[in-house]
Each structure stands twice: as structure tokens, then as C-alpha cells.
Write a structure and sequence with these properties.
2 domains, 4 helices, 6-stranded mixed sheet, 5-stranded antiparallel sheet, globular, Collagenase (Catalytic Domain), 21 strands, mainly beta, Immunoglobulin-like, 332 residues
């Protein structure tokens, strides 16, 4: 039995992800038969096709080269075991859902004036296995493979989209500024999977950051990843109740690396995994630097609280987790 799950990525990347019980990272999931299944590829390497369409300034061959480089970025993570294989050019389009081909290519969606690209899935809802995934890049926008100042960087957007392609949801590790027209401008981001894209000419998202690496490694762990990393777990509480949807950041005091997760149930429970052993500061914030539906399609997400720092530093051991603790936040 298969079901399609559509994830659209706006400029802004809007991605629909189901809320799950407490777990590290916002992995994509599907709910069926009373249970929640994390979606991921069950086979490796994953074959993908490149559409033979082009866009102004980007040929089909240039598109394939940029997409291949983006796949290679995820494949090169040493603590993750996921690989890809270019299967050839095709006349099929990303909109041909259910044709058995995972296709990346250009399409025109001028009606989607805030959508740079979108990722769609066909999923086996019994196992959660991804059967097919397609990504379109909207030719309503200008594209470049050279970092041209007047166009969006294809490889950067493809790297973000391929994160969805393998089952990752969005990260909230970023800061934005609200514009007069209601849109948000990215000031900084500490994850390729932050849902709002940098502007034209920016190639920063070609390179994965610690949060991206922890996310893919926890989904497709390689070697002794689980034995050499640790985790932080606890609850976010407000007035004696749990805070659903609180964003929890773990800051490594030695390296400065940030890895984060969400409190994903009504008890406010969180688990941030894939952490290098060491001492961490923990910060909790509301989901207010992007739209809620870029992360969750579940009701009850609470954003009416103030940013808070844990009153304790947390020592994370290799292969384990310190005792669970609470972080108390105050209402706005």
C-alpha cells in the first residue's frame, strides 16, 4: 500500500511534517494504522534521474552536474550511510508521481510565487520506506550554477531539497528579519535545512553544518556513530505543563557547534542526539523565525513563551545521556 506525501519548499521552503513522539530531529513521518513511521530509503544506493529540460542560463547538463554535487555532499558525511546513483537523463518530469522514477528537474510553476523548489514522495505506509521521490525547481525564478548575483544558486537549493529527499524535515537554526511585505529575510542560518532560503547569489548552503550532519547520521547511522555520540533529554515546561513544539538548542562550549531538536509531544519532552561528548549549554525558544506549517501539520504548537536558558550545563558522555531534566520557560 502506498500513499503520497507532498512537501513543498518555499523561499521559504514550506514542508509538511507530521508531529511524532519525542525523538531527535524533525524527521519526516507518516501516520497509518494507529502508528507513526519515520520515512527513509530502505535501499542503497538510491537511483535518481535528471530531467532533460533546461532553464534560462542553465542547461540540462549543468543542472545534472549541480544536482550530482549536491547528492555527493550528503553522501560524503562519514557518520552516515546513504548513497546515490545517477541513472541517466529522462524525458519524464518531476510531476509524474508514481512512475517509479525519482526525477529532479525544472518545471514552471508561476502560480507558486514564493516556491523555489518542491519535493514529493511515494511512500509504503506500512514500512515507511520511500519508494519514489521527485524534486522540481521552479523556472519562475532565475537560476545559476556559478553563484551569479542575479539568480538563486541551484546547488544550494538542491542540497536543501535532497535533505528532504532522504527524509529530513526542517531545522529552526536560523535568524530572520520580518520585512514590510510580510516575508522574512535570512540574517544567519546554522543549518542547510533551515526553511527560508538565502537570497540570490548566495552559495552558503552548498556546505552541510553540524545540525544537518547529526540529522542524517541519526537517520542513516554508519559505523560506531551511536556509540561515539551522546544525547540530551528532558522536558520544556510552562506553568506545570509541557510545551509542544518548543525548539531546543544544544551548544557545544568547546567547539561552538549547534545541534537542535523540538519538543514533540504534549509533555514537552525532547531528545537532542548525535552530540559529540562534551559540555553543553541548552537554550529553548519558540518557533517564531518561520511559519509553523513549515514544520508541523499538527495543532497545538505553543509559541507564546519567552526564550530561556537552562540553569545548568550538561555533560554529554559518549554512547549515553545524562539524567533527564526540565527547562522552565515563562509566558510572553
Amino acid at each position: 500500500m502506498r500513499r503520497q506525501l507532498i512537501a513543498s519548499v518555499l523561499t521559504v521552503c514550506a514542508l509538511i511534517a507530521a508531529a511524532t513522539p519525542a525523538s531527535a530531529y524533525l524527521h519526516l513521518s507518516v501516520t497509518a494504522f494507529g502508528g507513526v513511521k519515520t520515512i527513509k530509503w530502505a535501499r542503497s544506493p538510491v537511483s535518481w534521474y535528471s530531467s532533460n529540460t533546461s532553464a534560462p542560463g542553465v542547461s540540462a547538463a549543468q543542472f545534472q552536474t549541480a544536482a550530482n554535487a549536491a547528492f555527493g555532499t550528503w553522501e560524503a558525511v562519514p557518520s552516515a550511510q546513504v548513497s546515490f546513483q545517477f541513472a541517466g537523463f529522462t524525458g519524464a518530469t518531476p510531476s509524474n508521481d508514481g512512475d517509479g522514477l525519482s526525477v529532479l528537474g525544472f518545471e514552471n510553476h508561476s502560480d507558486l510565487d514564493r516556491t523555489l523548489a518542491a519535493t514529493g514522495f511515494t511512500i509504503d505506509i506500512i514500512s515507511g520506506a520511500i519508494v519514489e521521490s521527485d524534486i522540481f525547481f521552479n523556472t519562475a525564478f532565475e537560476w545559476s550554477t556559478s553563484g551569479a548575483a542575479n539568480a538563486f544558486d541551484l546547488q544550494s537549493v538542491a542540497t536543501h531539497e535532497i535533505g528532504h529527499f532522504i527524509g529530513l524535515g526542517h531545522s529552526l537554526l536560523g535568524e530572520t528579519e520580518l520585512q514590510a511585505n510580510g516575508s522574512r529575510r535570512v540574517l544567519a542560518a546554522a543549518s542547510v535545512m533551515f526553511p527560508i532560503a538565502f537570497g540570490r547569489g548566495v552559495t552558503a548552503d552548498r556546505e552541510l553544518q553540524p545540525d544537518d550532519i547529526a540529522g542524517v547520521s541519526s537517520l542513516y547511522p554508519a559505523g560506531n556513530f551511536e556509540q561515539t555520540t551522546g544525547s540530551i533529554q528532558g522536558r520544556v515546561r510552562l506553568g506545570g505543563r509541557g510545551v509542544f513544539g518548543a525548539h531546543v538548542e544544544a551548544f557545544n562550549l568547546r567547539t561552538g557547534e549547534l545541534v537542535a531538536a523540538f519538543a514533540l509531544n504534549n509533555e514537552g519532552e525532547f531528545l537532542v542526539g548525535g552530540l559529540a561528548p562534551g559540555l553543553y549549554a541548552v537554550r529553548v525558544e519558540p518557533l517564531d523565525d518561520a511559519s509553523i506549517d513549515s514544520f508541523f501539520d499538527a495543532p497545538g504548537i505553543d509559541i507564546n513563551f519567552r526564550v530561556a536558558l537552562s540553569d545548568r550545563l550538561v555533560a554529554v558522555p559518549a554512547g549515553g545521556s545524562p539524567a533527564s531534566f526540565d527547562v522552565t520557560v515563562a509566558p510572553k
